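2024-03-11 09:14:02 INFO worker-7 job=invfold-0412 stage=load source=structure_tokens
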């Protein structure tokens, strides 16, 4: 059941390592500046679009060169790369980890509660009393039963015995109660659909 969570944690760890190993940011793009390579006559004369690191003014260096200066596609590529610098990846990774934690599968039953089925009625949820709890006002003292009632722990005559919830009931998301993996978790995993460990049954 936890294969998807294990898969997502591994992908987020990879994303974080990649961002931390990359050239520190902020990465920036300034269309008014060009990168020149002293070993290449063409770039010495024309310049190239580039993503730099270390701040807008002045750049300490180039992270990548996307093409000839003034070329529309080169400028768009440089702008896109600069916007997706390591700091953004780290923010996204932490946000996805928080989302992943919220959408983990819920325990089979809540503490102190069980689901039962009564004869002629739908599923009901009973809450077990807390030990040493004070009885509500007007309630019978502990250990006594009102006249005409069955002793505690027994079913009324003619009623079907209480049935515990199926132990193999499908898991549900602890955040929204949807069958697990819930739609939000499937969407969270969707960007990794090209990873060899991704499974078709996880698709949104």
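2024-03-11 09:14:09 INFO worker-7 stage=emit residues=204
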């Amino acid at each position: 059941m936890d294969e998807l969570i294990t898969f997502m944690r591994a992908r987020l760890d990879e994303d974080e390592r990649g961002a931390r190993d990359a050239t520190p940011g902020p990465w920036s793009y300034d269309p008014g500046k060009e990168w020149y390579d002293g070993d290449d006559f063409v770039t010495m004369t024309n310049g190239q679009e580039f993503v730099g690191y270390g701040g807008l003014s002045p750049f300490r260096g180039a992270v990548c060169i996307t093409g000839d200066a003034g070329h529309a596609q080169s400028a768009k590529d440089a702008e896109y790369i600069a916007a997706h610098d390591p700091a953004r990846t780290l923010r996204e990774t932490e946000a996805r980890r928080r989302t992943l934690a919220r959408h983990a599968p819920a325990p089979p039953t809540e503490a102190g509660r069980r689901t039962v089925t009564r004869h002629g009625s739908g599923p009901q949820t009973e809450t077990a009393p807390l030990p040493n709890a004070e009885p509500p006002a007007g309630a019978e003292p502990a250990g006594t039963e009102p006249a005409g009632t069955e002793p505690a722990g027994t079913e009324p005559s003619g009623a079907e015995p209480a049935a515990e919830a199926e132990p193999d009931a499908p898991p549900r998301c602890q955040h929204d109660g949807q069958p697990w993996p819930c739609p939000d978790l499937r969407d969270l995993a969707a960007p990794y659909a090209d990873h060899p460990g991704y499974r078709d049954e996880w698709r949104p």
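2024-03-11 09:14:09 INFO worker-7 stage=report msg="The longest strand covers residues 61-68."
2024-03-11 09:14:10 INFO worker-7 job finished
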